[in-house]
Amino acid sequence: MSGHLSEEDLVLHHYGEPGREDAAAHLEACAECCARRDALDRDLLAVVDEAPEPGERYGAELWARLEPRLDAPRVAAFQPRRLLLPAALAASLVLAFLLGRHTQSPPGPSPGPSARAAHRERVLMGAVEDHLERSRRVLVELAGAPTQGAAVNISAERAWAANLVANSRIYRQSAARAGEARLADVLDELERLLVEIANGPAEMGPEDVRELRERIEDRGLLFKVKALQSQVRERAQKRDRPRTVS
Amino acid sequence: MAGEDAAFVERARAGDREAFRFLVERHGRNVYRLAYRITGNQGDAEDVAQEAFLKAYRSLDRFESRSNFSTWIYRIASNCAYDQLRARARRPEDPIEGEQGPLPIESEGASPERLAAGADLRRQLTAAMRRLTPAERTAFVLRHHEGRSIAEIGAALGLDTSAAKHSVFRAVRKLRAALQPLAQEALG
Predict the structure, then answer these.
(1) φ, ψ (nearest 5 deg) of residue B96
(2) Lower CB density within 10 Å: C or N end of chain A?
(3) Chain A interface test: which of B172, B182, B187 (most A C-beta within 10 Å)
(4) C-alpha separations of B140 from A20, B102, B186, B187 in Å
(5) Maximal CA-CA distance, chain A
(6) Which residues 35-54 on chain A approach chain B with CB closer than 8 angstroms?
(7) Which pLDDT score, from 0 to 100, does residue A115 have?
(8) Residue B92 has what DSSP assignment?
(9) Measured between alpha carbons, how far is residue A232 from residues A42, A88, A122 in Å?
(10) Average pLDDT in the B5-32 region?
(11) How far is CA B181 from CA B126, B177, B188, in A?
């Protein structure tokens, strides 16, 4: 018989999810795990469904509210309005940069991009790189927290993550619209983690740190972010490189 | 029912609003209940139900006729509810109906009577659910109350299977830590 079942093994077993293959056999033979399984079942039994039953007419009422919206122009739902202005500005900059790959002036004696456009691109490249760097630093800070001893206060990192989330979303959407699937995917992964950190507890215990570290490592997130940073930097350097006349 | 739904979806695709109305009226209550379980309040659940059907209406062309409309609308609603939780979490200063911050642990005030312990347990459950992250709460509700598999949860929320699984694990661990003493009292 292999080692005892972990809480995760028991949760998977409770919900009938695939997990450790010998879980059922182990439970039959091990009184200790059996007791832990019973305790888990008892605790989860206490999590009862409290959702109210809507009235019989609810469907009709929902339709009455919904129908006038069916032809309405689409609006971005669930977006905090106060974030729209800076986010929109950031989005337009990102979009301009990403699309700029396809609209570079041809080499030759014709005038290059205007000084204003070049300046805007430099600002943007700095913004994207800065965002990636700040996000990376939050993850590095948290993943580097002690995995032994008392819980650590992560209020500062939480606030930091919360600030990054809004921009992350807008960068991701812009990247997706510009066909930058890889950038959008990494930003999406980053955003999900940042949201969890921003909304998580103000303290992280050693186990939480280990879990976070594992998640970051499993996904190779730090590596992906670093690779993207290099890519952005390379693009910026290519654009800044003076064009030669052949 | 699934076959009948498919016929209504076809008609709705062709522009028949009455057909879509039928689908809303048939599935509206279940979608609302799912949204309530995830968001935990009536206002958000109502918004999510509307948003989910609106998205479904606008995506009817992408609905595969072999699929089940009920599964499809559940998936859309789960995603809308998850987005709603994330959006709410980003603006914690917004007042949420019935939510005035975490409830204190009240184990010392619990009555020895099972009924009283049960009431305390429900209050504690509400508070503990509120403290879960959006991913944890949504994944847990979909697994525990809706009976969706980890793979389905990952697909619905755009998470990989490992992330969905760990969200459920963390939710269970946190809920158990909050509920254990009271659960023993109420059910023991």
Answers:
(1) -115, 130
(2) C
(3) B172
(4) 20, 19, 22, 21
(5) 83
(6) 40, 42-54
(7) 60
(8) T
(9) 52, 20, 11
(10) 93
(11) 15, 8, 10
Contact assessment for residue B136 and residue B171, using Cβ atoms and an 8 Å cutoff: yes
Q: Which residues contact A165 (CB under 8 A, 6 or more apart)?
A: A191, A194, A195, A198, B90
What value does the mean pLDDT take over residues A53-57?
A: 87
For chain B, how many helices (H) and strands (E)? 8, 0
3-state secondary structure of B129: helix
Q: Is B166 within 8 Å of A211 when comparing Cβ atoms? A: yes
Q: Which chain B residues touch A215 with a CB distance below 8 Å?
A: 162-163, 166
Average pLDDT value for chain A: 73
**Distance separating alpha carbons of residues A150 and B8, to the nearest angstrom:** 58
Return phi, psi of residue B99, to 5°: -125, 105
Phi, psi of B12 (to 5 degrees): -65, -40
A186 class by beta-carbon count within 10 Å (0-12 exposed, 13-18 middle, 19+ buried): buried
Contacts of A14 (CB under 8 A, 6+ apart): A37, A40, A41, A44
Q: Under an 8 A CB cutoff, do B159 and A192 touch? A: yes
Mean pLDDT within B49-60 = 93
Work out the pLDDT band at A185, boundaries 50, 70, 90. Answer: confident
> What's the DSSP call for residue B59?
T
Cβ-defined contact of B187 to A42 (cutoff 8 Å): yes
- B164 Cβ partners below 8 Å, 6+ apart? B139, B150, B151, B153, B154, B157
Q: Which bin fits A149, alpha (ψ -120 to 50), beta or left (φ > 0)?
A: left
pLDDT digits (tens, 9 = 90+) for A141-164: 777 777 777 777 777 777 777 777
Question: B13 touching A, CB under 8 A?
Answer: no
**Which DSSP symbol is given to A72?**
S
Q: For residue A48, how many other CB atoms are within 10 A of its CB? A: 10
Residues of B in Cβ contact (< 8 Å) with A66: 24, 50, 53-54
Tokens coding B105: 């642990």
Q: For the residues B172-184, what does the mean pLDDT come to?
A: 81
Residue of B nearest to A40 (CA): B176
Interchain contact B122–A (C-beta under 8 A): yes
Average pLDDT over residues A194-215: 80
Between chains, do A70 and B17 touch, taking CB under 8 Å as contact? Answer: yes
